[in-house]
Amino acid sequence: MTKPQVIRRRLTQALLSGLVFGLFPVLMSKQAVASDFPNKPVTLVVPFAAGGGLDVTARIIAERLKDELGQPVLILNRPGAGSSVGARVVAAAPADGHTLFFTSGSAFAFANLLVPNLELKLQDFAPVAAVASNPAVIVASTKVPVKSLAELASFANPADINFCSTGSGGLNHLQLEMFRSVVKTKTGKNYNVTHVPYNGLAPALVGIRDSSVQACMLPYTVLVKNLNGKELRVLAVQSKARLPWLPDVPTTGQLGYPEMDVNDSFVNIAAPKGTPEQVIVKLENALSKTMQDANVRKKLDEMEVQALFMGSKETHKWLEDEVRKFSTIIREAGLSTK
After folding, report:
1. Strand partners, 191
2. Strand 136-141 vs strand 215-219: parallel, antiparallel, or unpaired?
3. What CATH superfamily is the domain 35-134+265-332?
4. How confident is the model at residue 27 (pLDDT cuts 50, 70, 90)?
């Protein structure tokens, strides 16, 4: 071997050694984070106001989850901008598993298409699990002559129907846009109902009661106290199965709209991207045990919330499917800011 070859070989070995030793502290740091997790309170960031259905669900789960993690589990409410305020808080947090996003639905995963200057994407999060189901129902005011989903879809003058949602660009608005598209495909005609966005559920219910709006797509759990048959008529459930609390109300698929059955909205939990896999596994296992707890399931059942458990990989796939589905709807409806 010539002298230049020897020199090059030694330089290569030195460089490789430097890379290995340079990476060693990073690898050890991540391992330390994982083995020591959790070493302080864990915070669940809820992107809606305190006292709402999602907030109460989070508190029920947090009370049991603390026993599995051996650390307090705190609730931090950060409402606003279609859940993107809370999403920003989590995305900017250290990727150590101590700050988690607790949300209903998938809006945070495609909100970047709807909120100007928001660059957050699904890739900025590490899905951990899904813990409950919160399907939407399609309701009509009892003050209009609409007693079925078919009658709502074939109403003589759709422009006379004001269709509410809990916010422009929100999940219920996008479900309405999907319904418009499905009805148009089936009938060949534009479904020109008027969309009336409200800033939350409470004003939407007021709109139904004073006849400002005639129909809505809203989460079932937030309508529990209002489904008395006097003001609201439940036409369909956007789910693959009927709700145990509404056994006489068919699913959208059973009524000839299977495309709407994919709108099951899961309560899901995510960590910031880069969170060590060992931490995700610890959280996943702790949540699995929490959701098997009979007392947790009983409390959620009393709220008429469907407890379930989906692991990290299954939850991630569901979110990816949601992004594909709603990205198409957002662009077709001309709602995208990009």
Report:
1. none
2. antiparallel
3. Bordetella uptake gene, domain 1 (3.40.190.150)
4. very low
Kindly report the CATH number that applies to the domain delimited by 136-262.
Answer: 3.40.190.10
Amino acid at 148: S
| Alpha carbon separation from 9 to 18, 127, 306 (Å, rounded) | 14, 45, 64
- pLDDT per position as a tens digit, 59-71: 999 999 999 999 9
With beta carbons less than 8 A apart as the criterion, state whether 78 and 50 touch. Answer: no
DSSP 262-318: GG--EEEEEEETT--HHHHHHHHHHHHHHHH-HHHHHHHHHTT-EEEEE-HHHHHHH
Please give the helix or strand (H or E) that residue 102 lies within, else none. Answer: strand 99-104
Q: Per-domain residue ranges for the chain?
A: 35-134+265-332, 136-262
- Close Cβ partners of 305 (under 8 Å, ≥ 6 residues apart): 53, 57, 132, 133, 134, 221, 267
CB 79 within 8 A of CB 85: yes
pTM summary value: 0.84
